[in-house]
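Q: Sequence in, structure out?
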Amino acid sequence: MNAPWKPGSGGQRDPFHAFVCDDHSFDMLRAVAAELGWAPEKVNKGGMRNAVQSLSITASPQILFVDMSESGDPLNDINSLAEVCEPGTVVIAAGQVNDVRLYRDLVASGIQDYLLKPFGADQLRDALAQAQAVFMAPRDAAPERPHATMAVIGTRGGVGASSIATSLAWMLSEKKKRPTALLDLDVHFGTNALAMDLEPGRGLTDAIENPSRIDGLFIERAMVRASDTLAILSAEAPISQPMMTDGGAFYQLLEEFRLAFECSVMDLPRNMLIQHPHLMADVNVTLVVTELTLAAARDTIRILSWLKTNAPQTRVLVVANRVHPGAPEISRKDFEQSIERKVDVIVPFDLRIASQAAKLGKTLAETAKGSKVGAACASLLDEVLGAAESDDEAGVAKGARKKGDSLLGKIGDFRSMMPSRRKDKAALDN
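A: Exactly. Output:
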Protein backbone atom coordinates (compact mmCIF):
# COMPACT_ATOMS: atom_id res chain seq x y z
CA MET A 1 0.00 0.00 0.00
CA ASN A 2 1.54 3.29 -1.08
CA ALA A 3 0.38 5.64 1.63
CA PRO A 4 -1.13 4.19 4.78
CA TRP A 5 -3.42 6.45 6.72
CA LYS A 6 -1.84 8.01 9.74
CA PRO A 7 -4.32 9.11 12.39
CA GLY A 8 -3.83 12.29 14.28
CA SER A 9 -3.28 14.92 11.60
CA GLY A 10 -6.02 17.47 11.24
CA GLY A 11 -6.99 20.19 8.82
CA GLN A 12 -10.04 22.06 7.63
CA ARG A 13 -12.05 19.20 6.18
CA ASP A 14 -15.42 17.54 6.70
CA PRO A 15 -15.74 15.40 9.83
CA PHE A 16 -17.40 12.48 8.05
CA HIS A 17 -18.10 10.93 4.65
CA ALA A 18 -19.69 7.55 3.92
CA PHE A 19 -20.11 5.46 0.76
CA VAL A 20 -22.44 2.48 1.05
CA CYS A 21 -24.00 -0.11 -1.25
CA ASP A 22 -27.41 -0.96 0.27
CA ASP A 23 -30.46 0.97 1.44
CA HIS A 24 -30.44 -0.42 4.98
CA SER A 25 -26.86 0.73 5.66
CA PHE A 26 -27.59 4.03 3.92
CA ASP A 27 -30.53 4.80 6.20
CA MET A 28 -28.73 3.68 9.36
CA LEU A 29 -25.63 5.75 8.62
CA ARG A 30 -27.70 8.85 7.91
CA ALA A 31 -29.54 8.45 11.22
CA VAL A 32 -26.38 7.89 13.28
CA ALA A 33 -24.58 10.72 11.49
CA ALA A 34 -27.42 13.07 12.42
CA GLU A 35 -27.18 11.93 16.05
CA LEU A 36 -23.48 12.86 16.08
CA GLY A 37 -24.12 16.26 14.52
CA TRP A 38 -22.76 15.35 11.11
CA ALA A 39 -24.45 16.23 7.83
CA PRO A 40 -26.59 13.25 6.68
CA GLU A 41 -26.09 14.27 3.06
CA LYS A 42 -22.44 13.20 3.40
CA VAL A 43 -23.68 9.61 3.30
CA ASN A 44 -23.55 8.54 -0.36
CA LYS A 45 -24.53 5.52 -2.43
CA GLY A 46 -21.94 3.71 -4.51
CA GLY A 47 -19.46 1.91 -2.27
CA MET A 48 -15.72 1.73 -2.95
CA ARG A 49 -15.77 2.82 -6.59
CA ASN A 50 -17.74 5.96 -5.81
CA ALA A 51 -15.44 6.69 -2.86
CA VAL A 52 -12.31 6.58 -5.04
CA GLN A 53 -13.90 8.76 -7.73
CA SER A 54 -15.22 11.32 -5.25
CA LEU A 55 -12.06 11.62 -3.16
CA SER A 56 -9.91 12.04 -6.25
CA ILE A 57 -11.47 15.48 -6.72
CA THR A 58 -12.41 16.49 -3.17
CA ALA A 59 -10.62 16.70 0.16
CA SER A 60 -10.71 13.64 2.38
CA PRO A 61 -12.80 13.78 5.57
CA GLN A 62 -11.59 13.18 9.09
CA ILE A 63 -13.50 9.88 9.23
CA LEU A 64 -14.35 7.84 6.14
CA PHE A 65 -16.82 4.93 6.09
CA VAL A 66 -16.61 2.80 2.94
CA ASP A 67 -18.66 -0.26 1.99
CA MET A 68 -16.61 -2.98 0.28
CA SER A 69 -19.51 -5.38 -0.41
CA GLU A 70 -19.18 -4.98 -4.18
CA SER A 71 -15.39 -5.20 -4.20
CA GLY A 72 -13.91 -8.19 -5.99
CA ASP A 73 -10.37 -7.52 -4.72
CA PRO A 74 -10.60 -5.69 -1.37
CA LEU A 75 -6.86 -5.20 -0.77
CA ASN A 76 -6.24 -3.87 -4.26
CA ASP A 77 -9.21 -1.52 -3.92
CA ILE A 78 -7.85 -0.28 -0.59
CA ASN A 79 -4.58 0.53 -2.40
CA SER A 80 -6.57 2.54 -4.94
CA LEU A 81 -8.33 4.37 -2.14
CA ALA A 82 -4.99 5.16 -0.49
CA GLU A 83 -3.84 6.87 -3.68
CA VAL A 84 -6.59 9.50 -3.35
CA CYS A 85 -7.04 9.60 0.43
CA GLU A 86 -5.09 12.18 2.41
CA PRO A 87 -2.94 11.17 5.40
CA GLY A 88 -4.80 11.58 8.67
CA THR A 89 -8.11 10.13 7.55
CA VAL A 90 -9.43 7.38 9.83
CA VAL A 91 -11.06 4.71 7.67
CA ILE A 92 -13.79 2.25 8.67
CA ALA A 93 -14.63 -0.45 6.13
CA ALA A 94 -17.66 -2.73 5.97
CA GLY A 95 -18.22 -5.90 4.00
CA GLN A 96 -19.81 -9.32 3.80
CA VAL A 97 -16.63 -11.44 3.85
CA ASN A 98 -16.29 -13.16 7.25
CA ASP A 99 -12.57 -13.91 7.11
CA VAL A 100 -10.20 -13.02 9.94
CA ARG A 101 -7.22 -13.05 7.55
CA LEU A 102 -8.85 -10.37 5.42
CA TYR A 103 -9.57 -8.38 8.57
CA ARG A 104 -5.94 -8.53 9.65
CA ASP A 105 -4.69 -7.63 6.17
CA LEU A 106 -7.01 -4.62 6.07
CA VAL A 107 -5.86 -3.47 9.50
CA ALA A 108 -2.22 -3.90 8.45
CA SER A 109 -2.84 -1.76 5.38
CA GLY A 110 -4.15 1.10 7.49
CA ILE A 111 -7.87 0.50 8.01
CA GLN A 112 -9.02 1.43 11.52
CA ASP A 113 -11.93 -1.03 11.68
CA TYR A 114 -13.88 -3.57 9.64
CA LEU A 115 -17.59 -4.15 10.29
CA LEU A 116 -19.20 -7.36 9.14
CA LYS A 117 -22.58 -6.80 7.47
CA PRO A 118 -25.27 -6.71 8.57
CA PHE A 119 -24.19 -4.55 11.51
CA GLY A 120 -26.39 -2.85 14.11
CA ALA A 121 -26.71 0.79 15.08
CA ASP A 122 -24.90 0.27 18.41
CA GLN A 123 -22.00 -1.45 16.66
CA LEU A 124 -21.80 1.43 14.19
CA ARG A 125 -21.88 4.05 16.97
CA ASP A 126 -19.09 2.26 18.80
CA ALA A 127 -16.90 2.12 15.68
CA LEU A 128 -17.48 5.81 14.90
CA ALA A 129 -16.78 6.81 18.52
CA GLN A 130 -13.50 4.94 18.48
CA ALA A 131 -12.60 6.52 15.14
CA GLN A 132 -13.23 9.96 16.64
CA ALA A 133 -11.01 9.13 19.60
CA VAL A 134 -8.22 7.93 17.30
CA PHE A 135 -8.46 11.03 15.14
CA MET A 136 -8.33 13.39 18.11
CA ALA A 137 -5.55 11.54 19.96
CA PRO A 138 -2.13 13.21 19.84
CA ARG A 139 0.20 11.53 17.40
CA ASP A 140 3.36 10.02 18.77
CA ALA A 141 6.42 11.88 17.61
CA ALA A 142 8.32 9.94 14.99
CA PRO A 143 11.95 9.30 15.85
CA GLU A 144 14.30 11.64 14.06
CA ARG A 145 17.02 10.19 11.90
CA PRO A 146 19.14 12.45 9.69
CA HIS A 147 18.61 11.91 6.00
CA ALA A 148 21.57 10.24 4.29
CA THR A 149 22.44 11.17 0.71
CA MET A 150 24.84 8.93 -1.21
CA ALA A 151 26.42 9.69 -4.57
CA VAL A 152 27.86 6.96 -6.80
CA ILE A 153 30.42 8.13 -9.37
CA GLY A 154 32.21 5.96 -11.91
CA THR A 155 35.78 6.91 -12.76
CA ARG A 156 35.43 5.44 -16.26
CA GLY A 157 32.58 4.28 -18.46
CA GLY A 158 31.85 0.59 -17.94
CA VAL A 159 33.19 0.24 -14.40
CA GLY A 160 29.71 -0.68 -13.18
CA ALA A 161 28.80 2.41 -11.16
CA SER A 162 25.11 2.00 -12.02
CA SER A 163 25.21 -1.61 -10.88
CA ILE A 164 26.66 -0.48 -7.55
CA ALA A 165 24.07 2.32 -7.24
CA THR A 166 21.09 0.03 -7.82
CA SER A 167 22.51 -2.62 -5.49
CA LEU A 168 23.11 -0.07 -2.73
CA ALA A 169 19.59 1.35 -3.06
CA TRP A 170 18.10 -2.15 -3.01
CA MET A 171 20.07 -3.16 0.10
CA LEU A 172 19.18 0.01 1.99
CA SER A 173 15.49 -0.49 1.24
CA GLU A 174 15.21 -4.28 1.55
CA LYS A 175 17.82 -5.23 4.15
CA LYS A 176 17.69 -2.12 6.31
CA LYS A 177 14.04 -1.24 5.59
CA ARG A 178 14.86 2.42 5.02
CA PRO A 179 12.60 4.31 2.59
CA THR A 180 15.01 5.04 -0.23
CA ALA A 181 15.00 7.16 -3.39
CA LEU A 182 17.20 6.26 -6.36
CA LEU A 183 17.95 9.11 -8.77
CA ASP A 184 19.52 8.22 -12.13
CA LEU A 185 20.99 11.41 -13.58
CA ASP A 186 22.00 9.91 -16.91
CA VAL A 187 18.84 11.25 -18.55
CA HIS A 188 19.53 9.75 -21.99
CA PHE A 189 21.26 6.44 -21.32
CA GLY A 190 20.52 5.65 -17.67
CA THR A 191 20.03 1.97 -16.79
CA ASN A 192 18.77 2.02 -13.18
CA ALA A 193 15.14 1.35 -14.09
CA LEU A 194 16.14 -1.16 -16.77
CA ALA A 195 18.25 -3.09 -14.24
CA MET A 196 15.11 -3.58 -12.11
CA ASP A 197 12.87 -4.43 -15.07
CA LEU A 198 10.91 -1.17 -14.74
CA GLU A 199 9.75 1.47 -17.20
CA PRO A 200 11.53 4.74 -16.40
CA GLY A 201 8.50 6.94 -17.04
CA ARG A 202 8.67 10.68 -17.75
CA GLY A 203 9.17 11.88 -14.19
CA LEU A 204 12.76 13.09 -14.49
CA THR A 205 12.19 14.62 -17.93
CA ASP A 206 9.15 16.50 -16.65
CA ALA A 207 11.15 17.76 -13.66
CA ILE A 208 13.90 19.11 -15.91
CA GLU A 209 11.42 20.77 -18.27
CA ASN A 210 9.21 22.18 -15.48
CA PRO A 211 11.26 22.67 -12.28
CA SER A 212 8.49 24.84 -10.78
CA ARG A 213 6.26 21.74 -10.57
CA ILE A 214 8.59 19.90 -8.22
CA ASP A 215 6.98 19.38 -4.82
CA GLY A 216 5.94 16.50 -2.59
CA LEU A 217 2.93 15.61 -4.72
CA PHE A 218 5.05 15.64 -7.89
CA ILE A 219 7.54 13.28 -6.26
CA GLU A 220 4.74 10.93 -5.19
CA ARG A 221 3.30 10.74 -8.72
CA ALA A 222 6.48 10.91 -10.81
CA MET A 223 8.59 8.25 -9.13
CA VAL A 224 8.38 4.61 -10.16
CA ARG A 225 7.99 2.14 -7.30
CA ALA A 226 10.35 -0.82 -7.21
CA SER A 227 8.95 -1.87 -3.81
CA ASP A 228 7.20 -0.43 -0.77
CA THR A 229 10.49 1.08 0.39
CA LEU A 230 12.25 1.90 -2.88
CA ALA A 231 11.26 4.46 -5.53
CA ILE A 232 13.18 5.39 -8.68
CA LEU A 233 13.32 8.59 -10.68
CA SER A 234 14.97 8.18 -14.06
CA ALA A 235 14.51 8.97 -17.73
CA GLU A 236 15.06 7.64 -21.21
CA ALA A 237 15.06 10.93 -23.08
CA PRO A 238 15.34 10.80 -26.91
CA ILE A 239 18.97 11.14 -27.96
CA SER A 240 17.86 13.85 -30.40
CA GLN A 241 16.56 15.91 -27.48
CA PRO A 242 19.20 17.75 -25.43
CA MET A 243 18.25 18.38 -21.81
CA MET A 244 18.98 22.05 -21.19
CA THR A 245 19.13 22.76 -17.47
CA ASP A 246 21.13 24.77 -14.97
CA GLY A 247 20.82 21.92 -12.50
CA GLY A 248 18.22 23.68 -10.36
CA ALA A 249 15.70 20.89 -10.99
CA PHE A 250 18.16 18.27 -9.72
CA TYR A 251 18.84 20.27 -6.58
CA GLN A 252 15.10 20.69 -5.93
CA LEU A 253 14.56 16.97 -6.37
CA LEU A 254 17.21 16.20 -3.77
CA GLU A 255 15.57 18.68 -1.38
CA GLU A 256 12.22 16.91 -1.77
CA PHE A 257 13.89 13.54 -1.27
CA ARG A 258 15.18 14.75 2.09
CA LEU A 259 11.60 15.41 3.13
CA ALA A 260 10.15 12.17 1.82
CA PHE A 261 12.82 9.50 2.35
CA GLU A 262 15.42 8.38 4.83
CA CYS A 263 18.05 7.70 2.17
CA SER A 264 18.81 9.00 -1.32
CA VAL A 265 21.15 7.26 -3.74
CA MET A 266 22.28 9.39 -6.68
CA ASP A 267 23.79 7.68 -9.73
CA LEU A 268 25.93 10.60 -10.84
CA PRO A 269 27.71 10.54 -14.22
CA ARG A 270 31.18 12.02 -13.78
CA ASN A 271 30.51 14.83 -16.25
CA MET A 272 27.92 16.12 -13.77
CA LEU A 273 30.74 17.08 -11.43
CA ILE A 274 31.85 19.59 -14.03
CA GLN A 275 28.41 20.82 -15.11
CA HIS A 276 26.59 20.84 -11.75
CA PRO A 277 29.09 20.78 -8.88
CA HIS A 278 26.43 22.09 -6.46
CA LEU A 279 24.81 18.64 -6.49
CA MET A 280 27.57 17.44 -4.16
CA ALA A 281 26.97 20.18 -1.56
CA ASP A 282 24.92 18.02 0.83
CA VAL A 283 26.12 14.51 -0.07
CA ASN A 284 27.05 12.55 3.04
CA VAL A 285 28.80 9.58 1.45
CA THR A 286 30.39 9.36 -2.01
CA LEU A 287 31.27 6.03 -3.62
CA VAL A 288 34.00 6.36 -6.24
CA VAL A 289 33.62 3.22 -8.34
CA THR A 290 36.69 2.21 -10.29
CA GLU A 291 38.54 -0.66 -11.90
CA LEU A 292 42.15 -1.69 -11.36
CA THR A 293 43.57 -0.17 -14.56
CA LEU A 294 46.03 2.59 -15.34
CA ALA A 295 43.38 4.89 -16.84
CA ALA A 296 41.05 4.34 -13.90
CA ALA A 297 43.86 5.08 -11.44
CA ARG A 298 44.51 8.39 -13.18
CA ASP A 299 40.84 9.40 -13.08
CA THR A 300 40.39 8.18 -9.51
CA ILE A 301 43.19 10.54 -8.45
CA ARG A 302 41.53 13.43 -10.31
CA ILE A 303 38.07 12.78 -8.87
CA LEU A 304 39.38 12.34 -5.32
CA SER A 305 41.20 15.64 -5.64
CA TRP A 306 38.06 17.34 -6.95
CA LEU A 307 35.99 15.98 -4.07
CA LYS A 308 38.53 17.13 -1.50
CA THR A 309 38.31 20.68 -2.85
CA ASN A 310 34.64 20.95 -3.83
CA ALA A 311 32.85 18.58 -1.43
CA PRO A 312 35.02 18.42 1.71
CA GLN A 313 32.05 17.37 3.86
CA THR A 314 31.46 14.06 2.08
CA ARG A 315 32.88 10.76 3.32
CA VAL A 316 34.57 9.04 0.37
CA LEU A 317 34.69 5.30 -0.24
CA VAL A 318 36.69 3.80 -3.10
CA VAL A 319 35.06 0.69 -4.58
CA ALA A 320 37.02 -1.47 -7.02
CA ASN A 321 34.35 -3.25 -9.07
CA ARG A 322 34.45 -6.16 -11.50
CA VAL A 323 37.89 -7.24 -10.30
CA HIS A 324 38.92 -10.38 -12.19
CA PRO A 325 40.17 -13.33 -10.14
CA GLY A 326 43.37 -13.45 -12.17
CA ALA A 327 46.02 -10.76 -12.22
CA PRO A 328 44.42 -7.34 -12.89
CA GLU A 329 46.13 -4.71 -15.00
CA ILE A 330 47.35 -3.07 -11.78
CA SER A 331 47.61 -4.89 -8.47
CA ARG A 332 45.58 -3.63 -5.55
CA LYS A 333 48.77 -2.62 -3.74
CA ASP A 334 50.09 -0.60 -6.68
CA PHE A 335 46.67 0.97 -7.27
CA GLU A 336 46.43 2.07 -3.64
CA GLN A 337 49.94 3.51 -3.78
CA SER A 338 48.98 5.46 -6.90
CA ILE A 339 45.83 7.00 -5.41
CA GLU A 340 47.51 7.41 -2.00
CA ARG A 341 44.70 5.75 -0.05
CA LYS A 342 43.21 2.33 0.45
CA VAL A 343 40.51 0.68 -1.62
CA ASP A 344 37.61 0.22 0.79
CA VAL A 345 35.70 -2.56 -1.00
CA ILE A 346 36.65 -5.07 -3.69
CA VAL A 347 33.74 -6.51 -5.71
CA PRO A 348 34.90 -9.55 -7.72
CA PHE A 349 33.84 -10.12 -11.30
CA ASP A 350 31.40 -13.00 -11.81
CA LEU A 351 30.03 -13.30 -15.33
CA ARG A 352 27.39 -15.87 -14.36
CA ILE A 353 25.88 -13.71 -11.63
CA ALA A 354 26.03 -10.55 -13.76
CA SER A 355 24.27 -12.33 -16.63
CA GLN A 356 21.63 -13.80 -14.32
CA ALA A 357 20.92 -10.38 -12.79
CA ALA A 358 20.43 -8.89 -16.24
CA LYS A 359 18.12 -11.70 -17.35
CA LEU A 360 16.00 -11.59 -14.20
CA GLY A 361 15.78 -7.80 -14.04
CA LYS A 362 17.21 -7.79 -10.51
CA THR A 363 20.06 -5.94 -8.87
CA LEU A 364 23.47 -7.54 -8.55
CA ALA A 365 23.18 -7.62 -4.75
CA GLU A 366 19.85 -9.43 -4.87
CA THR A 367 21.05 -12.01 -7.38
CA ALA A 368 24.42 -12.61 -5.73
CA LYS A 369 23.15 -13.85 -2.35
CA GLY A 370 25.44 -16.51 -0.92
CA SER A 371 28.32 -15.79 -3.30
CA LYS A 372 31.58 -13.85 -3.02
CA VAL A 373 29.91 -11.00 -4.90
CA GLY A 374 27.06 -11.04 -2.39
CA ALA A 375 29.53 -10.91 0.51
CA ALA A 376 31.25 -7.94 -1.12
CA CYS A 377 27.90 -6.17 -1.53
CA ALA A 378 27.13 -6.76 2.15
CA SER A 379 30.53 -5.34 3.07
CA LEU A 380 29.79 -2.34 0.85
CA LEU A 381 26.52 -1.71 2.69
CA ASP A 382 28.29 -1.87 6.06
CA GLU A 383 30.97 0.55 4.89
CA VAL A 384 28.38 3.01 3.57
CA LEU A 385 26.27 2.93 6.73
CA GLY A 386 29.37 3.23 8.88
CA ALA A 387 30.49 6.29 6.93
CA ALA A 388 27.00 7.81 7.10
CA GLU A 389 26.74 7.25 10.85
CA SER A 390 30.17 8.73 11.52
CA ASP A 391 29.11 11.69 9.41
CA ASP A 392 26.02 12.12 11.61
CA GLU A 393 28.09 11.93 14.77
CA ALA A 394 30.40 14.62 13.41
CA GLY A 395 27.41 16.90 12.94
CA VAL A 396 27.84 17.22 9.21
CA ALA A 397 24.52 15.74 8.15
CA LYS A 398 22.01 18.37 7.09
CA GLY A 399 18.27 18.52 6.67
CA ALA A 400 17.24 15.93 9.26
CA ARG A 401 13.56 15.14 8.81
CA LYS A 402 10.92 13.23 10.69
CA LYS A 403 9.84 10.06 9.02
CA GLY A 404 6.25 10.45 7.91
CA ASP A 405 6.34 14.13 6.86
CA SER A 406 5.04 13.23 3.40
CA LEU A 407 3.30 10.44 1.57
CA LEU A 408 6.41 8.64 0.40
CA GLY A 409 7.97 9.04 3.82
CA LYS A 410 5.29 6.75 5.23
CA ILE A 411 6.13 3.69 3.17
CA GLY A 412 7.61 0.82 5.13
CA ASP A 413 6.29 -0.99 8.17
CA PHE A 414 2.60 -0.13 8.26
CA ARG A 415 1.91 -1.84 11.54
CA SER A 416 4.44 0.32 13.37
CA MET A 417 2.63 3.42 12.19
CA MET A 418 -0.86 2.42 13.26
CA PRO A 419 -2.36 2.90 16.74
CA SER A 420 -2.72 -0.06 19.08
CA ARG A 421 -5.90 -2.00 18.43
CA ARG A 422 -8.30 -4.13 20.36
CA LYS A 423 -8.44 -7.84 19.69
CA ASP A 424 -10.01 -9.24 16.53
CA LYS A 425 -13.77 -9.26 16.66
CA ALA A 426 -15.46 -12.31 18.06
CA ALA A 427 -17.82 -12.27 15.09
CA LEU A 428 -14.87 -12.72 12.74
CA ASP A 429 -13.19 -15.37 14.86
CA ASN A 430 -16.26 -17.56 14.84
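The chain is about 40% helix and 15% strand.
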